[in-house]
Write a structure and sequence with these properties.
single chain, 451 residues, alpha/beta, Rossmann fold, Helicase, Ruva Protein, domain 3, five-stranded parallel β-sheet, 19 helices
């Protein structure tokens, strides 16, 4: 905990000192606020690593302070302190973003344990993520394009509801991780997240995989087996490439969406399940309906909320922010850099494999570049050819010019993103895949304006 800071907000001086002493006992440095307004000012002005917030304070109570702080610092771990039996206020605080609550009188060891736990694990409000591969850990959904900003906002709104969601986009655009983000930001975050690629399983096996089967229902069914819908009970099920389902399975899925029940293969007893369904397809639903491959009633049941992820070639202004973020994730211990020539080539490539292809290219380049700058010779042939070609005039929004360093590109991108988002630093950090603190450092380093 050495070097970590805590802000303790409590109007009772003795209680404030006790909380601070408990946290200082595990190596934290503490600052203090005597009411809700001072807590908001201190937290936003100099974000701490942890906020301990009493809910009953003068001028602005803890709930009001939490609302204002969470709007600007959605990832800040907050522990609220409540009076004995004031569970309703604690629940309201948790809905607003608090990570945990403690009842008075405070047990010092419990406070320390909660603080250590929160600072050692990600909280329930992670940034929206984008996966770059089937088995990869989630990556931040970065991008400054209007389409990406719209996608992130729709994800937030969808997560707050129980609505079924359909995600559309080409392969490699991050459909599964949009589903994971919706799950992680929802009230179901502590339940299971179960994914099923409907195109990756043989037709005769998919029904059993989804709905389970009874013993003896077919050759080889030696025991009852629970399907993905049962395994997802209390959580979220993600059905990738849902348009690949055969008609009889689409009908069965429609019943699940309508009634939240089904029968296992070979069974007659209805099985009820409490699930949130997120589906995805790389096809155009209206074309599939017209061709008779997708039930129209199923489509409208799935697309209560529809999120479209555009391909990378249609949002070239997102290529370099995404590349920068991927480089930081692929090689966190170093400072991998792109030459200006490579930066230009990346923005001109069409990326048929989208973000997944970009990640693979960068991973390969890092292997050949070692600790040095990534240059043209480290890229696959198609991109090397682009580097060799004369660079055309930059298109609007690419932020790339001949002969500039990646640092110059980064400065321009941050300035443009700040301007596009009205100077909102939290949203700018999210769009660029940076922590808020990293963004503040870069703003100061580059001498940038907020708007």
């Amino acid at each position: 905990m050495k070097g970590r800071t805590a802000l303790v907000a409590d109007d009772e001086a003795a209680h404030r000192r006790m909380l601070g002493a408990a946290l200082e006992g595990i190596g934290m440095q503490c600052r203090y606020a005597v009411d809700g307004e001072e807590a908001v000012r201190e937290a936003i002005g100099s974000p701490p690593d942890l906020l301990v917030l009493d809910l009953r304070m003068p001028r602005l109570d803890g709930i009001g302070a939490l609302r204002k702080i969470h709007d600007v610092l959605p990832e800040l771990p907050v522990v609220v302190v409540t009076a004995h039996g004031d569970v309703r206020a604690a629940v309201e605080a948790m809905k607003l973003g608090a990570r945990d609550f403690l009842e008075k009188p405070i047990d010092i060891e419990e406070l320390r344990a909660v603080a250590l736990d929160l600072l050692d694990r990600p909280g329930p409000f992670p940034r929206v993520a984008l996966s770059v591969g089937e088995e990869d850990e989630p990556r931040s959904l970065v991008g400054i394009s209007p389409s990406m900003r719209q996608a992130r906002e729709t994800i937030r709104l969808a997560a707050r509801s129980a609505a079924t969601v359909l995600v559309r986009g080409e392969s490699g655009t991050g459909k599964e991780v949009v589903a994971r983000a919706i799950h992680d930001l929802s009230v179901r975050r502590d339940g299971p997240f179960v994914a099923m690629n409907c195109a990756a399983v043989a037709e005769g096996v998919l029904e059993s995989e989804l709905f389970g089967h009874e013993k003896g229902s077919f050759t080889g069914a030696e025991a009852r087996r629970r399907g993905r819908f049962e395994l997802a009970d209390g959580g979220t099920i993600f059905l990738d490439e849902v348009a690949e389902m055969q008609p009889h399975l689409q009908a069965k899925l429609l019943r699940v969406l309508q009634e939240r029940c089904f029968e296992r293969v070979g069974g007659v007893v209805p099985v009820r399940t409490d699930i949130r369904v997120v589906a995805a397809t790389n096809r155009i639903p209206t074309d599939e309906i017209a061709a008779g491959r997708l039930r129209e009633d199923l489509y409208y049941r799935l697309a209560v909320v529809e999120i479209v992820l555009p391909p990378l070639r249609e949002r070239r202004e997102d290529v370099l922010p995404t590349a920068q973020h991927l480089l930081r994730r692929l090689k966190p211990e170093g400072d991998p850099r792109l030459s200006a020539q490579v930066s230009s080539a990346l923005t001109r490539h069409d990326w048929p494999g989208n973000v997944r292809e970009l990640a693979n290219v960068l991973e390969r380049a890092l292997l050949f570049a070692g600790d040095g700058e990534i240059r043209a010779e480290h890229l696959p042939p198609a991109l090397r050819d682009l580097c060799a070609q004369q660079e055309p005039e930059p298109s609007a929004g690419t932020g790339v010019r001949a002969g500039v360093l990646l640092e110059d590109v980064e400065r321009d991108l941050i300035q443009k993103t700040l301007a596009a988002l009205g100077g909102n630093r939290t949203r700018t950090a999210e769009a660029l895949g940076l922590s808020r603190r990293a963004l503040l450092y870069k703003i100061k380093r580059f001498g940038l304006r907020d708007g």
